[in-house]
Amino acid sequence: MRSIRFLYSDFHISLSVRNWCPHTVTKTVTCQVQNGTTLQRVYQTCRWPQGCNGGSYRTVVRPSYKVVYRTITSLEWKCCPGYSGSQCEEGEQIVEKTKEEKQDG
Predict the structure, then answer these.
(1) Could you tell me how far CA 54 lies from the centroid of its own chain?
(2) What is the mean pLDDT of residues 2-8?
């Protein structure tokens, strides 16, 4: 059984042959994280069928949140330098043509 490291290197080689190269992309995203709790007093009416002398208050504990910024780094595959197109096929022919033009000229 092969390790993941070898599989990754084989995958990298096969994609590089097709003019694809790995690029590290860093993005900043917003996230909501819990920032403690808040206590809230809520008025509660009488629930008894016989009636009461008014209502009562109950305390509700609710989480509070804040917005933070986190940096995420991911690996994306893009065309190698000098190549373009939807499948990274454009660019190699241009290099070959310029070599041929230099030999003809």
Answers:
(1) 53
(2) 46
